[in-house]
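Ticket #4471: structure export looks truncated?
Reporter: QA, pipeline team
Priority: medium

Steps to reproduce: submit the single chain below to the structure queue and open the exported record.
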Amino acid sequence: MIIIALGGNRPFQGRPPEITLLKAIRALPEKGDVAVVARSGLWRSPAWPDPADPPYANAAARIETSLAPEALMTRLLEVEKAFGRDRAGEARWSSRTLDLDLIDYDGRTATGEHLTLPHPRAHKRAFVLAPVLDIAPEWSHPAHGRARSVLESLPGEARVGLSRLRLSPSQTHKRS
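Actual output as written to the record:
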């Protein structure tokens, strides 16, 4: 199972982060070598490390691909850039239009300069685990076990402010 987490808290081209996430999911298969199998609902989480920043919209997608993990990560970075993300020009953990993280690639483990599998902090983040459970309730983190148990074992402060978003049909079907 290949799982991608999405997040963002800054508008892109005048549209809210929730729309950016939906558009990014639609952009993933544009080159024909990625298929989106499932998309989570949208979630909201407080900004971190600065809670004064706008809250994040979060989601997850389960995909199938012929791309190797490193090539898939390159694709994710291309999609981020297309949606206004400038990794080189931003501080770590700063606000952004779009963040795409490769959470799991068929249970593989790897540590490299540009990619660590599974994602090294996924098991500590309710804003990743809750959307993942929408699309893969049976998913187990390769090192930490079943996602539901991992989420439930997080300290309460890790889940504070996490909530499911409700968008109107007109918001989810905007084309431009």
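Status: closed, not a bug. The export was complete when the record was re-opened. Leaving a note from the reviewer for reference: The CA atoms of residues 47 and 68 lie 32 Å apart.
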